[in-house]
Structures are given as C-alpha cells and as structure tokens.
Amino acid sequence: MLHLTLRNLCHKSSFFQHNLQKGIVAKLKVISVQNKIPRRLYSNTQDNDQYEQIYFGSLAPQIKAVKIFSLTSSVAGLMAQPIIVKQASQIGSTSLLVIICSMVGFFTFITPLLLHFITKKYVTEIHYNPSNSTYKATTINFFLADKELEFKCEDVHVPDIPGMFTSMHVKGKPLFIEARHFENPLHYAKIMGYDKPMDFKLGEVQDSDNNNK
After folding, report:
1. CA-to-CA distance for 149 and 138, rounded, in angstroms?
2. 192 pLDDT exceeds 80?
3. Checking CA distances to 22, which of 8, 102, 136, 213 falls within 20 to 30 Å?
4. 191 contacts: CB under 8 Å, gap ≥ 6
5. Looking at the domain assignment, is residue 188 inside a domain?
6. 157: closest CA among 124, 196, 117, 184?
C-alpha cells in the first residue's frame, strides 16, 4: 500500500513538473516574441529618423491651396460641362457655343496643367542623412502627392544661365530652391557647389588669344 502511494505521488509530481515546464516554455516564447516586435519597430523608426529636415519652402502651403482649388474647379467644370453645352446649344449661336466651350475647356484642362508646369520644380522640403551624406528633395506632383528624390552633391548640376524657376538640375530634373529657407546655409553652399574651387576658365581665354594671333 505504501509502495502504491509513493508511486502515485511520484507520478503526480512528475506530471506537475511537466506541466510547469510547458507553462514556463510558453511564457518565454511569448516574452521573446514581444521583445522582438519593439526591437524591429525601434530599428525601423531609427532608420526613418536618420533624415533631418534642413529646408522648408515657405510657398508650399500656398501652392497646395492653389492646386487644390484648381483641381476642384476642374472637376466641377467637367461635371457642369454637359449642362453648359446643352444650355448654350439652345441659344442657336455657333460662335457663342465655341466661345463658351473654349472658356470652359481652358479653365478645366489648361489651368491645372499650366499651374503644375510652374510648381512642379518647387522644392517644398529637403532632408539630410549625415550617415551617408545623402539629400532627399520633396516636390508636389499633379495630384498633390509628395514626390521624393534622393541625391548627393555629385548629382547636382548648376547651369551657367538658370532657366525659369530653375536653380539647379538634379539627375537631369530641374528644381528650384531658395537660399534663405535653409536652416544651415552651409548645406546650400554644399549643394550648389560653392564650396568647390572656382574655375574662371582662364585657359580658354588664353587659347583664344593665341589663335587670334
């Protein structure tokens, strides 16, 4: 009888230890998973926080507001165009119908495209990554979404005669920036290449003088 009692106690203790071990292992797995998730989130936020803002275009809010108004008026013009054409056709004047359709088409299609052509070069923000000396310029596309362009100073070309609303070309794309909106003017000088030695092209002048002789 004593032997059976001891065997039952041993069996119960081993069963209890087995369940306890399973519970401890399950808790450790949950803790390890919970620890991995914050680490991954921390690493992702750390990668995103490597870029620091060094430039903000003061005209960005105004440009967005004007483009919103332009796109809204274009959508309204498209919706109202069948009604306007129908009402104009009832007048019976062909010339008046052409004039009305031209005005509606101009404000519906031409104005948003012209506005986008002017504002697509305007840089709203520039971020800098000091770890790899990379810049990220942000512009606004036709549908008011941010468009980012990563570049380095070697990718920037400053034309001798800047074009309309163009300060520089980055990877062949014209962009417009203003020096007074940089938090640190050294970044502007570095992007525009003002920190490099200036080339006055004196050699070309001497060669041309020799050819004239």
Report:
1. 6
2. yes
3. 8
4. 135, 153, 156, 168, 177
5. yes
6. 196
Integer Cα distance of 73 and 213 in angstroms? 66
Residues 152 and 185 in one domain: yes
> Do 91 and 112 fall into the same domain?
yes
Same domain, 115 and 129: no
Q: Are residues 141 and 101 in the same domain?
A: no
Are 64 and 144 in contact by the 8 Å Cβ rule? The answer is yes
Neighbouring C-beta atoms of residue 177, cutoff 10 Å: 20
Q: Has this prediction a pTM greater than 0.70?
A: no
208 within domain boundaries: no
Give the CA-trace dihedral at 119, 180, 127, 45, to 10 degrees.
Answer: -110
Which residue, of 94, 119, 144, is where some domain finishes? Answer: 119
The H or E element containing residue 90 is: none
Interval 43-60 mean pLDDT? 75
Q: pLDDT, tens digit, for every residue of 57-110?
A: 999 999 999 999 988 888 887 887 777 777 767 776 677 777 777 777 777 888
The pLDDT value given to residue 5: 43
Q: Please list the alpha-helical segments (H only) found in 52-201.
A: 60-89, 94-105, 111-119, 185-192
> Domain tally for the chain?
2
pLDDT of res. 42 = 38
Dihedral of the CA atoms 147, 148, 154, 155 (nearest 10)?
-20
Which domain range does residue 158 map to? 125-192
